[in-house]
Task: inverse folding
């Protein structure tokens, strides 16, 4: 199916702008996961900041109750170490199919190669990425592998988080593995 989508998008002048997004050139990005930081408003919305990831309660009733009491509706928080935050960024940059050295430096104040030189070396060696401008572009082989990894991530992390948060508006924690 993915190969068919790639063929059709090429014939209809769409380009692959992320693992599962095809758009016309110069179309603005629309998803939060393709942004470096964002603030989410509303039930089940997520917020990503420099050192923390937060998810609001999924319950509309509890969300409104929090707002009426001048409290944040955050149900779950994950504090990042600097490396974990950089890994999170690397994962979602790979989703966008391009890993920008300049963007990484602007966010983390370190060179991408200094933090992930080993990983980048092997990704290039296995032809999952190739050097492109001031960063790296996922190859078709790399994009396909990332697609498989992202599917597993979705099932393990996102599905479990949603299932738990839908059943409990204030979960104490979620154990992923």
Result:
């Amino acid at each position: 199916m993915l190969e068919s989508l790639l063929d059709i998008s090429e014939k209809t002048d769409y380009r692959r702008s992320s693992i599962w997004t095809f758009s016309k050139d110069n179309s603005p990005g629309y998803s939060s996961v393709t942004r470096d930081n964002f603030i989410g408003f509303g039930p089940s919305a997520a917020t990503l900041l420099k050192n923390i990831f937060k998810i609001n309660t999924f319950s509309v009733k509890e969300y409104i109750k929090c707002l009426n009491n001048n409290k944040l509706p955050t149900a779950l928080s994950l504090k990042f170490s600097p490396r974990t935050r950089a890994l999170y960024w690397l994962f979602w940059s790979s989703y966008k199919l391009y890993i920008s050295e300049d963007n990484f430096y602007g966010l983390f104040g370190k060179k991408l190669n200094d933090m992930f030189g080993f990983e980048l070396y092997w990704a290039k060696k296995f032809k999952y990425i190739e050097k492109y401008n001031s960063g790296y572009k996922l190859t078709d082989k790399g994009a396909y592998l990332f697609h498989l990894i992202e599917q597993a991530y979705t099932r393990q992390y996102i599905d479990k988080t949603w299932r738990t948060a839908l059943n409990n508006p204030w979960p104490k924690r979620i154990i992923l593995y």
